[in-house]
Amino acid sequence: MKIKPIILVEGEPKSIFLEIFFKSLEKVKTKSPLILICSKKNLEDQMKRFKLKKKFRVFKKKNLDLQKVDNNQINLIDVNYKKSNKNKYIKECFGIAFDFLRSGYTYKFINGPINKKSFLNKKYLGITEYIASNFNINDTGMLIYNKKIAVCPLTTHLPLSLVSRKITKKKIENKIIMINNFFQKILKIKPKIGVTGLNPHCESILNFNEDEKILKPAIKSSKHMGINVKGPFPADTIFLKANREKFHVILGMYHDQVLSPLKTLLEYDAINITMGLPFLRVSPDHGPNEKMFGQNRSSPKSLIKALKFLDAK
């Protein structure tokens, strides 16, 4: 059976993605063919900038035959890019990838980082939500994954003042179930899940304490489903070495509560996986870093891990 290809969308055209893509090709040879969706001119300009000679073959989307792509070259789908309409370009690249994913042509997808502020224009909290909406998926999970430890925020790119309003027993239960199912189905592991509290030390001076009234009942009911989950634990100590080693994944209540300590521990040694989609979507665990564009100083570590992860699936 022909190995399914990995679809890659460039993302932000003036970002470090093509730089780390080239560097990744020097470090890893995938069994899965790579199909890059981006502007041919962007690709050639970046190759010239970094003095690279890479083989690539240009395909037209409608004529892309799985039998003709291979992993001895870059298989390119050329998308016209005009600087005056960057968002249209990004949307078209994603649209082509979505068509391949819907058709079953592949289930392996990597997108380069996006400037959320300019592309999403406050319509979506993040690119995860943008992708999910295109597949009519209402509930997804952001998993920042490393074999040693992974984290999942219950709420993602949400202003802190709104977080407590979005925390419900049902939402916590659903996320715990999603994590448990993903680990067992995709990673073949029955996960040990730790849950952080919302409040400092899981305590509150207010009459209503979310950790007592919402989190504890949600964790208790999840245990009754046979899921190995414990908590809530104070967020300021759960990432201590002796504590984090007890878990495969830590579910936090908001974005920076779990991403900040993980990135401090691992830096770029993790990948961003979206749970709850009908395909495997992975992205490097960092932004477009437009200030570093063209400087040849960016680490490809996260993209290498993303390629290896999908290549093994």
How large is the share of residues in beta strands?
Answer: 15-25%
Largest sheet: 8 strands, mixed
Please compute the radius of gyration using only Cα atoms: 20 Å
| Tally of separate domains | 2
The mean pLDDT is: 92
Given the structure, what is the number of helices?
A: 11
CATH fold name of the largest domain: Isopropylmalate Dehydrogenase
Key traits:
four-stranded parallel sheet, Isopropylmalate Dehydrogenase, about 325 residues, about 35% helix, alpha/beta, 2 domains
Describe the structure.
- The chain is an alpha/beta fold.
- It has 2 domains: 1-137 and 277-313, Isopropylmalate Dehydrogenase, CATH 3.40.718; 140-276, Isopropylmalate Dehydrogenase, CATH 3.40.718.10.
- It is built from 11 helices and 12 strands.
- An 8-stranded mixed β-sheet has the order 3-4-2-1-5-12-11-6. Strands 7-10-8-9 form a 4-stranded parallel β-sheet, with helices on both faces.
- The model has no long low-confidence stretch (mean pLDDT 92).
